[in-house]
Amino acid sequence: MILIGTGRVITDVGSMTSDITKWSDMVDSVFKVLDCYTRIEPKDPDGHQPKKIIGQVEIRDVDFAYPAKPDVLVFKSFSINIEAGKLTALVRQSGSDKSTIIGLVEKFYDPLQESVYIDGKNIRSYHLRVLRKHIALVSQEPTLFAGTIRENIAYDVSHKIF
């Protein structure tokens, strides 16, 4: 009886070993991402930190390719001017890189040529976190966290709402 019980324990431990290895690999991959250095943060870590952004957005003659596909140009000399306080819609068929435009404004990507300006300032000079605190985006397929709609809207807001 003891031998049968011991055999089961050894079998269970053996099956857990592969799970532990998988967990270890997952944790390693998370730390690799966390340890990555981004070239998007401005050279001056303090960067431009405005208290208020008016919202004039200008993309000037931007050439862009995704880092994973540097040989495939998504935009060639692309320009758009979005006036502050105006409602602007980017309307095109699915897969036409509308979200890439937003990714450039939010500094998720750097253009290959020329740049993006907010209130007349090159966004490369903005402090990344400060800039993103001034930007709100509701995507076509929003991801909600557990909680009420109000809690989701207020998520990571540094000041009290209502």
From TrEMBL:
The keyword Oxidoreductase does not apply. InterPro entries: ABC1_TM_sf, ABC_transporter-like_ATP-bd, P-loop_NTPase. It comes from the Eukaryota. Residues 76-152 form the ABC transporter domain. Keywords: Glycoprotein, Membrane, Repeat, Transmembrane, Transmembrane helix, Transport. Gene3D superfamilies: ABC transporter type 1, transmembrane domain, P-loop containing nucleotide triphosphate hydrolases. The keyword Mitochondrion does not apply. Belongs to the ABC transporter superfamily. ABCB family. Multidrug resistance exporter (TC 3.A.1.201) subfamily. This is ABC transporter domain-containing protein. It comes from Vitis vinifera. The lineage of its organism: Eukaryota, Viridiplantae, Streptophyta, Embryophyta, Tracheophyta.
